[in-house]
């Protein structure tokens, strides 16, 4: 296997077409100039990285992210924003697909929000993620809970339901909806199903069970 060696070079602003890349293979000096190197890159030949399929990791860093792109050779995984990918492709951070409301994909996912007695004492408003398709609300004993839901993406659906709640208590959701700004769920099993319409920047009710809109 060839080794690449970089030796001392004279100070220069940039490489020129006549500069050489020096490669030492089996003790023999070999060289390729920049012109030929670029010509080869523009050819129809396949470009392969780690063609011998060694169990080596490859990392690309940026100014603010030491794990911008990580290829884990031993476990066949790719991490973006993480040095320890747990799936074939593991992204830590936001993912955008497409550039308009008609582009992109829908990812089904859920979250569980727990509202505690301490949250009630401190008048905390828990944030419901608009990126999750399903949100389950659990409220501690004797708690009236406060939640809020911000804007979504055009056409997306959102389901919110109450899993635990004492009788006489409520789960109140602040929202920008079509004809309402608050959703009240006052018993276990009560739910709302919403769809976001970007043309009016509002959530619209498309289903649910026993939710109160005001």
CATH topology of the largest domain: Jelly Rolls
Give the overall shape.
Answer: elongated
Task: Report the sheet-strand fraction.
Answer: 35-45%
Structural class: mainly beta
Number of helices: 2
CATH class category name of the largest domain: Mainly Beta
Q: What is the H level of CATH, i.e. the homologous superfamily of the largest domain? A: gp9
Order of helices and strands: EEEHEEEEEHEEEEEEEEE
pLDDT average, as an integer? 84
Uncertain runs are none
| Beta strand count | 17
Largest sheet: 5 strands, mixed
Q: How would you write the strand order of the largest sheet? A: 8-10-12-15-16
Distance between the termini: 72 Å
CATH architecture of the largest domain: Sandwich
Give the proportion of residues in helices.
Answer: under 10%
The Rg value, from CA coordinates, equals 28 Å
Number of domains: 3
Which features does this protein show?
mainly beta, Jelly Rolls, 3 domains, five-stranded mixed β-sheet, 40% strand, elongated
Structure description:
The chain has 214 residues and is mostly beta strands. The protein has three domains: 2-6 and 15-47, no CATH class; 53-93, no CATH class; 110-213, Sandwich (Jelly Rolls), CATH 2.60.120.640. It is 6% helix and 40% strand. The protein has helices spanning 34-41, 117-121; strands at residues 3-4, 20-25, 28-33, 58-60, 69-72, 77-80, 89-91, 110-115, 126-128, 134-139, 145-149, 157-164, 171-177, 180-185, 191-197, 202-209, 212-213. The strands form four sheets. Strands 8-10-12-15-16 form a five-stranded mixed β-sheet. The protein has a five-stranded mixed β-sheet with strand order 9-11-13-14-17, with no helix packed on it. A four-stranded mixed β-sheet has the order 4-5-6-7, with no helix packed on it. The radius of gyration is 28 Å and the shape is elongated.
């Amino acid at each position: 296997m060839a080794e690449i060696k970089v030796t001392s070079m004279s100070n220069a602003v940039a490489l020129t077409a006549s500069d050489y890349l020096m490669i030492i293979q089996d003790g023999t000096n070999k060289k390729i100039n920049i012109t030929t190197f670029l010509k080869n890159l523009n050819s129809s030949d396949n470009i392969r990285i780690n063609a011998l399929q060694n169990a080596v990791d490859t990392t690309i860093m940026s100014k603010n992210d030491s794990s911008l792109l990580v290829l884990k050779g031993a476990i066949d995984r790719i991490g973006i924003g993480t040095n320890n990918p747990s799936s074939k492709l593991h992204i830590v951070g936001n993912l955008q697909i497409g550039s308009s409301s008609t582009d992109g994909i829908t990812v089904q996912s859920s979250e569980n929000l727990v509202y505690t007695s301490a949250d009630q004492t401190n008048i905390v408003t828990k944030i419901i993620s608009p990126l999750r398709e399903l949100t389950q609300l659990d409220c501690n004993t004797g708690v009236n809970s406060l939640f809020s839901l911000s804007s979504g993406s055009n056409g997306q659906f959102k389901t919110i339901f109450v899993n635990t709640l004492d009788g006489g208590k409520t789960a109140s959701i602040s929202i920008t909806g079509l004809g309402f700004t608050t959703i009240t769920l006052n018993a276990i099993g009560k739910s709302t199903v919403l769809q976001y319409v970007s043309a009016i920047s509002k959530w619209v009710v498309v289903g649910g069970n026993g939710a109160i809109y005001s």
